[in-house]
Model the fold of this input.
Amino acid sequence: MIARNSTRIFGLVFTSLGLASIIVALSNAWASGVSFLDLSTFNEFLWTNRFHIGFGIEFELIYLIIAGAVTILLGVSLLARRTERIEEVTVITDDVTATLECTVCGYRWKEIFSETQLESMGFPRNRKISRRKCPACGRFTRPKIMEVRAPRAF
Ligand SMILES: [Zn+2]
Done:
């Protein structure tokens, strides 16, 4: 959970940093009256104008664009990886195997439920489920949930 959240935060931070760098470079060009449509002038502007980040450090705007694009790619790939993981988890935790016990004869059998189904039946407060026929004695009972096996604990 923590790993997933930090991946998301890093993804968002990288994406915003990358966008910010590109916006800074573009607004520098715009402030100097360079048209983005005039590609050769724009390209020359990026290669010849320097960007000061303070502490005496400065570099050409083109590097700001390149760094920005790389950072965005990194951020987006982190965000995409996070979505993938969540889908995986959903698939695994959706179905759970419940061990049911007949209240008449005590026979136990297994049935597959989805988590939302169990929650709507009031599990884990209510451990008895809707009426169904016992496969052993054939009586209609409200079987008791003895055990639920799922990767995620209830
Ligand atoms: Zn039974």
